[in-house]
Amino acid sequence: MKMPILCILLLTFAGFSHGNVVAPRLCGGRVFVEDSVVIEISTAHENCHWDIQTQEDRILVFTALNGNLKEAQDFLAIYDGAKEDSTILLVEDQKIHERSRKDLPASVYTTQSTASIRLTKAPNSNLKLKIQKAVDCPFNLGTESQCGRVVDEVSCYCATFTKRNHPSQRSYCNSHNMKLLSLETYEKELSIHNAWGNEATFLTSLTDAPNEGTWYWESTDTILYPGYSNWCSKQPDDTGAFGGEDCMVINYEANGCWNDCDCDKDDSDAICQALP
Question: Which residues make beta-bridge pairs with 180?
């Protein structure tokens, strides 16, 4: 059955993208970012205009897949919002969190869930813009906390150096729209170690309190095994001075391996995470 010509035209010029896809090679359009989208700026021409949107409680981050994002500002403008008078985002104006990875690509972050891209003149380079959904990362949690883009450019991690027990650390993270740390891979744990290694003993969201011996990441509601683990020798041993040990801390005094611990003992710092 042949599709009517009118339907073909509507599909061709919709300019609307979902998920991890390359946006249509058209001059502008509407793009919804489910996770990430790539726009080929080099195929567009002067006065092209894209309206970008993601879910309401997230922000957007723009990076260059090839080319230089700062140099790209000579021929395009990224606006923090969809209105004509929205603020133009510049690489040099972006604040850098003190513990962010130094090898992350140059990026610009919005402060809201919408943005727009407007070409001021035809590009002279083969630039592709990668647009990702990201979480906001706070700067103002106080002197006893440090935050940063520790793992990648879309997530956020905050270490709190106020000692609390597990329920209190969980509440602290939740009050800042975050959750206690989960460690699903060696690479993620290495990034955490590179940011805060040897500075403290950090509580995480790993627990077996609901079902003794069945460890799971409370923040992501996933079972530990058969996933990644990094227990210290002879751990977990469930031999706390005040009863069972149903929570886990990263023990940087023992090269960053894991110890089970008493959930009610208020002698550990913690790391919070926010994932997109």
Answer: 272
Is the distance from CB of 36 to CB of 131 less than 8 angstroms? yes
Tokens of 192: 């955490």
pLDDT digits (tens, 9 = 90+) for 163-182: 999 999 999 999 999 999 99
Q: What is the pLDDT of residues 206-265, one digit of tens each?
A: 999 999 999 999 999 999 999 999 999 999 998 865 568 999 999 887 788 999 999 999
Give the whole-angstrom CA distance, residue 61 versus residue 36.
9
CB 240 within 8 A of CB 247: no
Q: Token pair for residue 158?
A: 């905050």
Count of Cβ atoms closer than 10 Å to residue 243 Cβ: 11
CB 106 within 8 A of CB 64: yes
C-alpha distances in angstroms, 114 versus 61, 79, 131?
11, 9, 11
Task: In whole angstroms, give the CA distance from residue 274 to residue 205.
Answer: 13
Q: What is the mean pLDDT of residues 157-168?
A: 96
Q: What is the C-alpha separation between 130 and 29, in angstroms, rounded?
A: 16
Q: Which of 56, 64, 43 is nearest to 131 (CA)?
A: 64
- What distance, in Å, lies between the first and last C-alpha atoms of the chain? 41
Quick one: which of 272, 190, 266 has its CA closest to 228? 190
∠ Cα 172 174 180 (to 5°): 80
Specify the amino acid at residue 2: K
Distance CA 15, CA 51 (A): 10
